[in-house]
Specification:
Number of domains: 2
Number of strands: 2
Largest sheet: 2 strands, antiparallel
Strand order of the largest sheet: 1-2
CATH architecture of the largest domain: Orthogonal Bundle
Structural class: mainly alpha
CATH class of the largest domain: Mainly Alpha
Radius of gyration: 27 Å
Length: 286
């Protein structure tokens, strides 16, 4: 009951903070009538056209108002899957392209990272042999691989998938190795006593024990992958939420840019929540 109460209070506080932020947004972006001590010159028709009265001017912030943002949200979400050509697709289609690239790159990283992580986690010799290469490649920015990917693969979409793969593989690999290497010795001693085969030991003992750590690595990898795909799509263009954001900026539509940023954040939050649920499902209760 106490946990539920804390969670409820946290949600209420979140709503209050959101409302305060929206109020500040409204105040900052609201048009302001400023007195002008210098009499305006020109015809009264021109002053009326510009929304100016005698001795006053109306200053508008370049930032979109809440009303403008509401219109943008309604316009984008009312028809999210329209397709009017290469540079005019709905937000649903753009997110689908990005999620498909992230999903494929992430799956390829899983195929490589988890088995290889098992190898170096179970073998200290393999860990010492491969660790220098991992430490050299791990800190390299994923976008630094983009020129090489574009030159060798010669396909922007596949190059984006490769960038997702290369940024997703390291957290999964290292967390898998750490989880496997730190399985409780008591469990491994039992498998020796019972003469369990290596394959059964890996799937029935080591994998369940290391699963929470592996899921942590997968959760980190997914967050990095979703972060990187936006920048990658800005570079390669074509489709995706990153390209949508960059295209709207080129069209000087700041409200659509902010809308895209919010959608990126919401999708990232949903992905993180999904992996958090999986992580909780495989964790042992204390």
């Amino acid at each position: 009951m106490n946990k539920l109460s804390v969670k409820t209070r946290g949600m209420i506080l979140s709503v209050v903070i959101l409302l305060m932020a929206l109020c500040i947004w409204h105040v900052v972006t609201a048009p302001k009538v400023v007195s002008n001590p210098v009499a305006l010159t020109g015809s009264s028709e021109y002053q009326a056209l510009m929304g100016q009265g005698a001795g006053t001017t109306v200053e508008k912030s370049g930032f979109p108002t809440l009303t403008k943002m509401g219109e943008t949200f309604y316009q984008q979400l009312s028809h999210p899957f329209y397709d009017n050509g290469p540079n005019d697709k709905g937000i649903g289609i753009q997110l689908a392209y990005s999620l498909a690239r992230v999903g494929l790159g992430f799956l390829l990283a899983m195929v490589v990272a988890i088995p290889f992580g098992f190898l170096i986690g179970m073998s200290p010799l393999a860990y010492e042999a491969f660790n220098p290469f991992i430490q050299i490649l791990k800190p390299i920015s994923p976008l630094a691989w983009m020129p090489i990917a574009l030159y060798t693969i010669k396909d922007s979409s596949i190059s984006g998938i490769f960038v997702i793969f290369i940024c997703s593989v390291w957290p999964m690999l290292l967390n898998t190795a750490f989880g496997v290497a730190n399985v409780r010795k008591e469990l491994l001693n039992v498998t020796k006593t019972l003469e369990v085969s290596p394959m059964r030991k890996a799937f029935l003992v080591i994998l369940p024990a290391a699963a929470p750590t592996i899921l942590t690595g997968m959760r980190i990898s997914m967050g990095i992958a979703w972060l990187v795909i936006v920048a990658a799509e800005m570079l390669v263009g074509g489709t995706g939420i990153g390209y949508f954001l960059w295209n709207e900026w080129n069209n000087l539509s700041l409200s659509s840019v902010i809308f895209a940023i919010i959608m990126i954040g919401l999708v990232g939050m949903l992905l993180d929540i999904a992996f958090a649920k999986l992580q909780k499902a495989v964790s042992y209760a204390d």
